[in-house]
Amino acid sequence: MVQNVASEMADLESEDFYLLSGVEQGMRFSEWVAREKLPDFADMTAENVDYRLDRCERRGLVERKTIQYEGFKLTFEGYDALALHTFAERGTIEGVGAPLGVGKESDVYEVQSYKPLALKYHREGYTDFREVNRGREYTADKAHVSWMYTARKAAEREYDALETLYPDVSVPQPIDHNRHALIMERIDGVELGRAKLDDAQVVGVLDLVLAEMATAYDEGYVHADMSEYNVFVNSEGVTVFDWPQSVPTDHENADELLVRDVENIVGYFQRKYPHQVGAVDTDALADAVADDDVETVRTFFD
Ligand SMILES: Nc1ncnc2c1ncn2[C@@H]1O[C@H](COP(=O)(O)OP(=O)(O)OP(=O)(O)O)[C@@H](O)[C@H]1O
Ligand SMILES: [Mg+2]
What we know:
The chain is of the alpha+beta class and about 300 residues long. Helices cover about 45% and strands about 20% of the residues. It has 2 domains: about 5-185, Arc Repressor Mutant, subunit A; about 190-300, Orthogonal Bundle (Transferase(Phosphotransferase), domain 1). It contains 10 helices and 13 strands. It is elongated. Mean pLDDT is about 95; it is low at about 130-140. It binds adenosine-5'-triphosphate and magnesium ion. The site of adenosine-5'-triphosphate has 19 residues, from β4, β5 and β6.
């Protein structure tokens, strides 16, 4: 598990961040950045590099290996620290609070700011990296570079989707992004999978979710990871979150993915609320969603 670096931030000095971004620069060219290249990348003296490397290594922000040459790389914690530093400098956040969700592919924390916000670190590539790290040295080396790239791309994709969809679709308002991290509005609510809906609410909530999917399609996106775990329910309605894997509607698999999303969400309601939600033609339903035809969508569960 990736440690929460927030508590280390106050101890770090601005030159520690120069060193970390020097390592980051170097990692564009090789998996392990040779110590003697760091004075150039970080624009500091060799003595200062040694001193900063030591401080950062002790805090788990960089990792060292000595095979052939002495090299360093950023850990996920080091990458987190760089993103947090950037957000703090931009004034986006004032501090990091409690975890909101720790997933397979992300860590989400509440953050202090002018209003309740959430910080999501993308961890795509992290599991792969641990898998390949068991022994296969060559691929392991490649994976070291790709986790940063994969996680950064995922954060960019999620931010772009949120920017397009907000506020027409009920998604968390995007606030800022940097590297593999994004800041968004914090949603108060309970995940659909943990909500206990009253009989009278069930169909209405399902209609709301499908209506958001219809508007999203109209705005050019299919969520592509739709499930009861990626929808919040509260007294104001529903919020659909977790968009990094979304695809544009002109993507060759978009319509297949839309059908799968519809099947996932309808299937969940059918299993959990069998008396309220019966069998439906999900292909026809997906067509109505794609046409943003909310009137017709509603008739499926009358
Ligand atoms: N904007 C938000 N406000 C409050 N809590 C959030 C917010 N975004 C995410 N969370 C919490 O963090 C958890 C994980 O977030 P999210 O679903 O976006 O990532 P993930 O599930 O790890 O990604 P994946 O589904 O790709 O594995 C959510 O289940 C939710 O509890
Ligand atoms: Mg999720």
